[in-house]
Amino acid sequence: MTSNFEGVDLVTIRDFSRDQIEHVMNLAEKMIPIALGEERSDLLSSHLLGSLFFEPSTRTRLSFASAMARLGGITLGFDQPLGASIQKGETLADTIKMVDAYTDVIVLRHSAEGSARLAAHFAEKPIINAGDGAGQHPTQTILDLFTIRKAKGKIGDINVALVGDLKYGRTVHSLAEALALFGAKLMFVAPKTLQMPKETVRAVEKLGAKPAMLTTIEESLAEADIMYVTRIQKERFPDLAEYQKVSGEFKINNALLKDAKPELKIMHPLPRVDEIQAEVDSTDHALYFQQAFNGVPVRMAILSLILGAKS
Ligand code: CP
Questions:
Q1: 210-225 tens-digit pLDDT
Q2: What is the CATH number of domain 13-136+293-306?
């Protein structure tokens, strides 16, 4: 069923079926001229977005605000909790209840895994998870799938290497599940201590995937059609010494890419630190800035569908 998104929460990628994800991507494709500012729209002119970012963000926060503005809607909220009454001891639940009263849909980023699920419990309006700790980042996943589909013409039956911090990286948790749902072949490339959590491995296996567990980029290079690189999530390590052991271990540069397929595309949810060298940006492999732009049409589609706006 693709028809009814109105009022639904998007907390994990499992909240949308494959048909629904395809429906979002098809609508996002039509939204591109509006996202680029080439066409005007007032599709969401009567709507308010509550944008609550308790953790730093550039792409997710601004692309949601851009998506809302391009469709004539308004965004309220905060980009760091210092200016909010949470500083006076207000709970997340009470904060959500307030924003629920002021807006039509709430986008939440928070450091605590499960925070979006908690918010969905307290809110009557839809909650969109913009990243909950090391949990999931489902709108990033849909824009990643959209980017892959545009670059490769398909998502199933291609080789995708997920590289870097697979333990703490929330984007790869939701993306691995979605890729398995679409039938992509998966390689999980990470230092042993940062491999994909067992529950995600079990989830993708349940969907029929047989991920290869690798410890070096070189092992995945010849096969990969897409290499999805992630930052080591320094802020999630309980012990800085453990971070220092793995930091800088994976670096993509032009010398390494000589052994890749010429049509290999490199993606990254960004921000990057040093895992993709700047020299790669000007190669045909680099897809990460286009990927970041794709957040706008994809989030326009998600907001329109969840708000039940009719074009
Ligand atoms: N990809 C992503 O979530 O980026 P931000 O942290 O800048 O939002």
A1: 999 999 999 999 999 9
A2: 3.40.50.1370
